[in-house]
Every structure is written in C-alpha cells, then in structure tokens.
Amino acid sequence: MAPKSKKNAKGGKSEDGEKEAPLQAVVHLDAFEERFLPFTLERPRCLLTLANTPLIEYTLEWLASVGVEEVYLYSGNHTDLVEEYLNTSRWTKATSPFAVELIRSTSTSIGDNMRNLDQKEIMKGDFLSVYGDIVANIPIDAALRGHKVRREKNKNAIMTMILREAGDDHRTKDQHMRRCFVIDPVTDRCIHYEQVRPRHSPRLNIPDEVLKDHTDIDMREDLLDCGIDICTPDALAQWSDSFDWKMPRKDFVHGVLQDYETFGRTIHTHILTNGYAARANTLRTYNAVSKDVISRWAYPYTPDMNLVADQSYQLGRGVVYKEGGVILARSSTVGKKTVLGKATSVGDGSLITNSVIGRRCVIGKRVRIDGAYIWDDVSIGDDTVINTAIIANEVSIGRKCEIKRGALLSYGVRVADGTVIKEDTRLTRTKRKRDHDNDEKLDRDPTDTTIVGNSGSGFELLLDEEEDEVISALRLGLQDTDLTLDDTPDISSLDSGPDSETDPSHHPRTQSFASNASSETASTRHAAADFHTEASTSIFDALASHQDPDNIQLELQALRLSSNAEDSHVRRAVAVAFGRYTSHLVETSEGKKKSVNEAVKASIPGNMRLITSCVRAPAEQAEFLLFLQTDLVHRPQGNKILVFVANLLAENDVLDGEGLKLWWEDPRGKANEGLEKVRRETEQVVEIMGEDDEDDGEESEEESEEE
C-alpha cells in the first residue's frame, strides 16, 4: 500500500523560494501494550470501536484536519486486519486528503518503528509522531511555528511534545505511573522527565546540574500526554544510535535529556490550554473519551458526524444517537447519553441508560443495561442485567443472566442461561500460545463451564504474574473506575485557569468563601469542583469556537441534570467561562488585541441567554458578580473587564440596583486586597444603578399619590 501522489498537495514554497517539505506523519497503530486484553488477542486496538466508530478513524480525521499530506502507518499484531480495513475505507481512495502507506514490520516496540523509519529515509522534514488511539480537535499551527522557529535558531532542538493542561488528580491520567515534566518556562524546554510510581517513589531524582543551570523551573505533574510529537529527522537518528530505546518518554526523552551535556540536543514542549486531545490507551481513558465524544465535548467528533461512510446517526433528545433501522418496543426505555447502532432491536420493558449499543444487536425483554459498551451482533436474553461492562462482537448472553461491574467479554463468548459473571472477570475463547521465538499465536482453550455455564463457551483469561503493569492498568481501568457515563468527570474538564482544579474556598485569594463551604461534605465539594471544571471549560471552548448559544445552553442543562448540580454551580461555571473568554479576547484575537470594551461586546451580547437563564433575582445577580470578580482577580485587566461587563449587563436589565448593592456590600467581595482592587472601578456602576432605582421609586410614589 504505497503512498499515492496527491494533486492537491499543500506543500508550497518558503520565503526563500525553496519548496517546503510536505507535512508527514507516522502513526503507531500498536502501542505494544496489553491493556485491552482480552480484546486485543483477536483485533488490534486501533480497530476497537469507540462510540461505534473504530479508533483509527478519529486519528486519521484529525491528521487530515491539520493538513498532513503523507501518512505512514506502523502496524504490529493483526496487520492483515488493518490492511483489510484500510482497503475498504475512504483513506485509500483517490479522494483521500492524504497519501497513506501501511508498513509491515517485525517491530516489538515504538523504538523499532522509529529505527525502521530512519532506515527507509522517507521523512523529508519535520513530521508528526502519533498513536492510533488519539481523539483530538486541536490545531497545531502554533506548535509547528514554534518548533520551526526553534530549529532555525538551534538545529539541536529535535522534538516538541504537545501536552495538555490537566489537574494533578484528574481521573484520565495514568494512576499507576505519574509523569513529571520539569520545564524551563522561558524556552519551553523540557530539562528533566521522570515517571514516578505513587507510593513507591517519594521524591524526584533531578540532577544537580539541572538545578544549577536553571534558576526558574516549572515542575509539572498536571500535564496530560496527548501522544503527539513534532519530530525532526535528527530525532530518528537518535533512535537508531540507541538500539535499546523502546518507549518515546521513558527511553527516548529520558535518554536525550541525560546526554544533553555531551551532545546538546534539546526537547521542547507546547502546552495546550484549549481544545480537546486525549488517548484512549487504557480502559479508564476509553471510558472517559467515549463519554466526551457522546457528550459532544470533542466536537466535531461526535456520533452524528458519521465519520464512517455507511453511518447514519442522528442526535435526539436526551443526547441519544440512533442509526436507521433501530426497533424499540413501545414499553422499552432508552435513557440519556446512549448510542444505538443500525438494525438493533430492544424488547418490551427493557431499560438502557448511559450505554453504547452496536449494530444488529438483539436485546430481549425486561433487560437492564447501564453504563455498558456493547459492540456489534450481540444477543442478550430476557431478564438479563448488565452493569458497566464491555461486551465484544458476537457475544451471546442467555436469559436471566447478570454481568457484573467491570466484566470484559471478548469475541464470540457464550454465557448460558441463569449465569452470573463476577466483577472484573475477563472472558475469552482465545488463549496466547508463545513459541520459542516469542511470537504470539492464537489458540482455543476448552470451555470452563463453571464460569460460563453448561451450554456456554469461553474461559477466564488469567494474566501471568510477571505482567504487573497490565494487571495494574486493568484494575485501575475497571475496579477503580465505574464505566457508567455520568458518574465521573470527563477529560473535557481540563481547565487552563489557575483556580480551575479547586473550589474557591480552598484558594488563599478567596478565603472568605470558606465559611460558605464549611458545612458541605468533602464529597459534595468534590462533585461541585468536578462539575465546575467540566462545565466552565466546555462553555469556554464553545464560546471560542462560536457555537450556537442555544446548543451551549442545551448541553449545559444536560450536564447539570446528569451531575445533579445546583443552580449556584451553574452560575459559577458561566461566570468563570465568560471571564476567561473575555480575557482571552483581550489578550489575543487572531493576532490583534481587542480593547476591553470590544472584547466584552464580542463575548456577551450574542450569548446573553447563557447568563439570563441562571441570573434573575437580586441574590442571584450578586452571586454571579461575586464569582466573576473572584475569577478576574488573576486575569490581565480584570478590573476593566469587570466594570464593562457590569455596565453592559445593567444596560440590558440583567442587573439591577438591588443586585449590585447586595454584591457590593457582601464582605466576601472585599476579603483581601486583590478582591478590593479588581472591583474598585465598578463602584460607579453600583452608584448609578442605585440612583436610578431611587428615581424609579420616587416616580412610582408620585404616580400613586396622583391616583
């Protein structure tokens, strides 16, 4: 499958007249991990479906969106299946946006892929190195420009890692291995990288010379590794020089940084604060990214975008997606955030919530399914209950069965009537047979009827003791994370604001809020923080991408209901999102700064309903202003933004004199110097609105006397 020449290639000429190399990408379809066992015994991870679309589709769609012209795919296991899929996809047709080549190799690591790529000498310039399990909508123009500028100044700048801001304890981060990036904030250079096992490594081992040479460093454990790198051909040469390097971070980055004093090669970072980028590389993140796609946080990559040619999903009420030919019995119920594939049928009295159901599934009567991922051609008997499990293609589950939380049922497994599958059980019909060359071959094992029942088919997959990382990943993916789509914050809750990961009561700048929160339980505060980060970030991203305010309001309402959030939580999220977005417009608007007044007029009038829907009574007005004031303390020109926003909302009758007075007199709004300073100029708005209210009151009294 050799690359095709593209008539519409985007390669142009540089400023000095030389023809620029086309943007190329290498995609690692096999991460050489076993975190998706038992499914990956029979199919490659890149072809596993996420929201009923193969993972590889999301990756290739994103590469097309950023202007990649040539794509080289490295496949490990199941290369024939990958080739078969590609040959029937749009990516190998004449209308494909890029040339694509599937490279067969005997690689056993990412390092082998990169060394093989170096030998082929097909990379003409800077290129992207990504995994085949990425879901992203981020532009990379700024990252590419920054990388190019650094290269022009220093040819030893061989790689840029694209990272995404997250919280220290965000659930989508790797819980059995924490990644710490030590960065020079002036040059964005990564000067130390370390993978730390929680509870095993109490401290970082930062070399003395790093601390001596850099007076200002950022130690970041809050960054999410998107698995997207901008590399130079020189980076490939480093892989070739070190034949024992296998992994991009643990080996390559760590090794290059260790050898800096000898060779002077540098690795840099580009940290994203907006947009969506994540890997579905564990069961934990598979759940999180699925949730984001269904909830439309990864827009435009949603089920109803129909990325695959024969898909026909439509979005319905309650964030339910259905393809044509779905048959629902009258007494069946399909709850919120559910996906139903073509030709699936659901029997009388069945209830499906928070789940993804594939094509041609037959679901019997009185079935209960919650938080499950059920792929194609699955049959489920009457009165069966399935909770937070993954069910692969062509599985048959009998009548009156119970599939408990965390169970994984691989391809073709058959469960007999009345069988209970225990929590975290992994069932398969295929075992690994290793020969002396360590090449894995598939084989069948006898059925264990004690697990799947007398007429069942399959057995439990037990991992070897030495596969410690796999066991940890599976346990963290299933035992510690409920697969239900609504019970945990998703990856879209990544927020760039300094206070985004904490409740206001926990921040020293807003200590006056502590009394407000002291009566809340820890779990309540945690849930509120989860909702806030998710909601405020999604609103900001929607505003930045100029989405219809009606759609933003609809999604916010759906999130509020699913999170059981209070009205005050919604007001806080809206206030913070508008404060952040307005500040964003002031600082950068397509390279041209806006005045504060222009930024406020660009952000609020067209999206006013987001504010008016949650701000009505004077007490609500005061609370909204308090949240906005608190957010703007750390924003550039926050004092100006606050006065212009307050004035605009007052002019549009969203704020009245009573609401402004309540806010102004609230002791929490003047608890420290920062809060006092940011609101100082807004006093004139409070005074004017207070005078207007007095005048209105006098006029009303005069009219009453005349009557």
What does this entry look like structurally?
It is a single chain. By secondary structure, the chain is of the alpha/beta class. The protein has 3 domains: 24-279, Spore Coat Polysaccharide Biosynthesis Protein SpsA, Chain A (Alpha-Beta Complex), CATH 3.90.550.10; 312-460, Hexapeptide repeat proteins (UDP N-Acetylglucosamine Acyltransferase, domain 1, 3 Solenoid), CATH 2.160.10; 495-698, Serine Threonine Protein Phosphatase 5, Tetratricopeptide repeat (Alpha Horseshoe). It is 35% helix and 19% strand. The chain contains 22 helices and 37 strands. The protein has a 9-stranded mixed β-sheet with strand order 15-16-19-22-25-28-31-34-37. Helix 20 packs across helix 22 (683-706). It is globular, with a radius of gyration of 28 Å. It starts with 23 loop residues before the first strand and ends with a helix. The model is unreliable at 435-439, 465-522 and 703-707 (pLDDT under 50).
In short:
This protein is an alpha/beta fold.
Descriptive tags:
single chain; 707 residues; Spore Coat Polysaccharide Biosynthesis Protein SpsA, Chain A; nine-stranded mixed β-sheet; 22 helices; 37 strands
Give the SSE map:
Layout: E1 24-28, E2 49-50, E3 53-54, H1 55-65, E4 70-75, H2 79-87, E5 99-104, H3 110-120, E6 127-131, E7 134-136, H4 141-153, E8 157-165, E9 178-184, E10 189-196, H5 208-213, E11 218-220, E12 223-231, H6 233-241, H7 248-258, H8 260-263, E13 266-272, E14 277-279, H9 283-294, E15 314-316, E16 320-322, E17 327-328, E18 333-334, E19 338-340, E20 345-346, E21 351-353, E22 356-357, E23 362-363, E24 368-370, E25 373-374, E26 379-380, E27 385-387, E28 390-391, E29 396-397, E30 402-403, E31 408-409, E32 414-415, E33 420-421, E34 426-428, E35 430-434, E36 440-444, H10 449-452, E37 459-460, H11 468-479, H12 514-517, H13 522-544, H14 549-563, H15 567-587, H16 596-603, H17 608-612, H18 618-632, H19 638-651, H20 657-665, H21 673-679, H22 683-706
Parallel strand pairs: 1-4, 1-6, 4-5, 8-13, 16-19, 17-20, 18-21, 19-22, 20-23, 21-24, 22-25, 23-26, 24-27, 25-28, 26-29, 27-30, 28-31, 29-32, 30-33, 31-34
Antiparallel strand pairs: 2-3, 6-12, 7-14, 8-12, 9-10, 9-11, 15-16, 34-37, 35-36
